Amino acid sequence: MAKRGAAGVVTFGALLRQLRRRAGLTQGELAVLVGFSVAQISRLEKDERLPDPQMVMAQFLPALMLDDEPRLAQQLVALAAGARGERPPTMLVTERQVHTSIREEVLPIAEVAGDLPGLPLPLVGRERDIDTICKRLMAAPGRLLTLLGPPGVGKTQLALACAAQVGPLFADGVYFIGLAAVTDAAYVPSAIAAGMNLVEREHRDPRLRLLETLRRKTTLLVLDNFEQVSTAAPLVAELLSGCAGLRVLVTSQEPLRLRAEQRQQVQPLTPAAAVELFLQRAQAINPDFTADEQAVAAITAIVLRLDCLPLAIELVAAQLELFSPQQLLARLADQALDLLATGPRDLPPHQQTLRNALRRSYTLLSDTEQRLLRLLSVFAGGCTTGALKVVASAARQSAAESLLIDLRTLLRKSLVQQQQHDGGERLRMLTTIRDFALEQLAVIGEQLALHRAHASYFLALARSSGNASAGGSAVATTQMEQLEQEHDNLRAALRWSLEAEPTLALDLAVALSP
């Protein structure tokens, strides 16, 4: 996040770093252009070295290509002078810059204009993501960047951190527009106008008002939870087309599918970062909290069970008021979503529990898409598309053609992932999403038919592998490898059939025996 002083003022180093990145320069390249060492540039960007305002004017402004951007140039020089407690020096400007400064007042050296919520805590493990997103957003073709990912992966927090970092580059402000409560795309123009504090005029089309307001401004819009209003994507295209100084950062579970769109998939945290986040939240609850070797092992298992999702980790860590890490791990085995049911009150309602976040995504699906998500939940450890088709057909779920259409939708909405595994593709769900889908399976009453179809498929697979193995062919080797890949599914099928259909369980055990 951009470095700020006690009063929220953007520092010289933060603005220098952003302008250097925008110009596409490394620290080494900028050092060559201005006659500094790389170490000196690094110290300037960290605000560990006092800048010389005259040197900034003479060397840095041309190197950063600010000749035609007087407001940013003046801001950088003024920050350099302010760091030394001096008044900004008089700047020589071109005729073009004089006309520009007459039309527009100089960008104030203070908090970025707009309405950007602050982050309650620093992000953990997202430094590289923030750097990548900021670079892509500010690159020439990057006027629309969509952050994609499943519920709870941290898209909103990441967007806020990135918007704060690039904020000094937007003379007319950064505006955060939360769309979680907007369920009709027709109201998106009004929501954006309200988020920008634009006074509504009677009988005035808010879309035209936005175009009129943004046309001559350098602004960043952050549109959060766009999957709620995906049919409003043409409005974003229209704003970008009519407003050359506008850039848009979107968070969504699915792409906007616009020609100008760049996409950035937001991944869960690394296990190490996930453990760090858990410890950070634990110490926020209890500053005396310490983790011994056994506790760290339990915490590691917890974050892996939660797919390293930041929201899930925060919700579970909040339970440390009542349980030790070892107790939390034990309860996660069969009460995962219940443990994720009480979150901070300052989060949006759909993020206060993971079940709420998942339910919100689930309700945005069509009936057939919901049915397919429930079907996928009976597979443990993922499945191939071929296996999915067979089980769906056996359970009389849907025709192959419509199944593939719905599957593409679930993939696009980040609820299912497609991964390469041993040369083939497998469909996988995050554990937390699968837990929710299994809950819905029980609510609808489909579990018997779907689990039976699942177990029957893997019984047939085990039998065919056993028959091929008896022949000792190359085909047998391939089928045995396939059987090994399906270890989790075979175990799940055996566990279910032992409780529900013992005869099927016996057949499966015989088929799997050497």
Explain what the structure shows.
With 514 residues, the chain is an alpha/beta fold. The protein folds into 4 domains: 12-103, lambda repressor-like DNA-binding domains (434 Repressor (Amino-terminal Domain), Orthogonal Bundle), CATH 1.10.260.40; 114-265, P-loop containing nucleotide triphosphate hydrolases (Rossmann fold, 3-Layer(aba) Sandwich); 271-351; 365-512, Arc Repressor Mutant, subunit A (Orthogonal Bundle). Helices cover 55% and strands 8% of the residues. The protein is built from 24 helices and 8 strands. The protein has helices spanning 12-22, 27-34, 38-45, 53-63, 70-83, 95-103, 127-138, 155-166, 188-195, 206-214, 233-242, 271-285, 293-305, 310-317, 325-339, 354-363, 367-376, 385-394, 400-412, 431-444, 447-471, 474-485, 487-500, 502-512; strands at residues 114-115, 144-148, 174-178, 219-224, 246-252, 261-265, 417-421, 424-428. The strands form 2 sheets. The chain has a 6-stranded parallel β-sheet, with helices on both faces. The chain has a two-stranded antiparallel sheet with strand order 7-8. Helix 21 (447-471) packs antiparallel against helix 22 (474-485) and helix 21 crosses helix 23 (487-500). It is elongated and about 90 Å long. The protein starts with 11 loop residues before the first helix and ends with a helix.
